Amino acid sequence: MKKETITMDVKLMFLWMRWISELHNRNHLETTMIPHFQRRKK
User: Fold this and answer.
1) Which of 1, 12, 16, 22 qualifies as a FRET site for 40, CA 20 to 30 Å off?
2) Residues 20, 22, 23, 24: is their CA dihedral positive or negative?
3) Does pTM top 0.85 for this prediction?
């Protein structure tokens, strides 16, 4: 039982870190790429 809860925690942490990094990357992309694209369109 203890082993299972530990693996669950690890999985949750991994998902949480992935989600945060994805959000961070998305924000970074938006701040860097969108102004560039807007400049190109005009």
Assistant:
1) 22
2) positive
3) no
- What is the rounded CA–CA span in Å between residue 18 and residue 25? 10
**pLDDT score for 31:** 72
Q: How far apart are CA 17 and CA 25, in angstroms?
A: 12
Amino acid at 32: T
Structure tokens at 4: 């299972």
Q: How far apart are CA 24 and CA 30, in angstroms?
A: 10
Token duo for residue 21: 């990094």
Q: Measuring CA to CA, how many Å separate 17 from each of 4, 23, 27, 29?
A: 20, 10, 15, 18
